[in-house]
Amino acid sequence: xxxxxxxxxxxxxxxxxxxxxxxxxxxxxxxxxxxxxxxxxxxxxxxxxxxxxxxxxxxxxxxxxxxxxxxxxxxxxxxxxxxxxxxxxxxxxxxxxxxxxxxxxxxxxxxxxxxxxxxxxxxxxxxxxxxxxxxxxxxxxxxxxxxxxxxxxxxxxxxxxxxxxxxxxxxxxxxxxxxxxxxxxxxxxxxxxxxxxxxxxxxxxxxxxxxxxxxxxxxxxxxxxxxxxx
Length: 230
Fold this sequence. Notes:
Elements: E1 2-13, E2 20-31, E3 35-39, H1 46-53, E4 61-66, E5 69-70, H2 76-86, E6 87-91, H3 102-112, H4 119-128, H5 144-157, E7 162-166, H6 174-190, E8 195-199, H7 202-205, E9 210-215, E10 218-224
Parallel strand pairs: 3-8, 3-9, 6-7, 7-8
Antiparallel strand pairs: 1-2, 1-4, 4-5, 9-10
């Protein structure tokens, strides 16, 4: 089943001779349960694509459909609610609230949405990510890898249609990078989650189910890698 689809997606900046075509007609379909990597060099358009997929910015033209909803047709308030409920984000800089505990950071999206937390589901996530003994800690008391685990837990707890990960291992050393990617794959499979990861790291991308190459705002290659293992 299709979870995400783009149709002729474009994002242009400026006009005339100085116009930058960050995305130039992207057609993309992501199926339920896929772990896809979008790979490209700096300036290729991969981060712009993620912003469009997550409704963090509006396209110049084209359509983005997530879980059956055309997100650019939603008003700002409805888009905010839709994002909170249907799209989980994992960022390179973790984006944890420093004055909140690990537990409070994980449940924050649910509290902002006024929804109760599925405690059994959250405990399962926490156990899977090895955070059982860190729930009362503040983010500043954790290593980079542990903070990224918290970010993964926060993205999963709302049971979103899709998780978008923007260079999620960019601030981590090589050993922790492998660990975090392994956890992303493990949690994706365990909780039947669909994940799209943006990365410049080709070797990291090869560990995903599918690799999508983007250059100059266009998809130039798209292939499966179903035998990938961490």
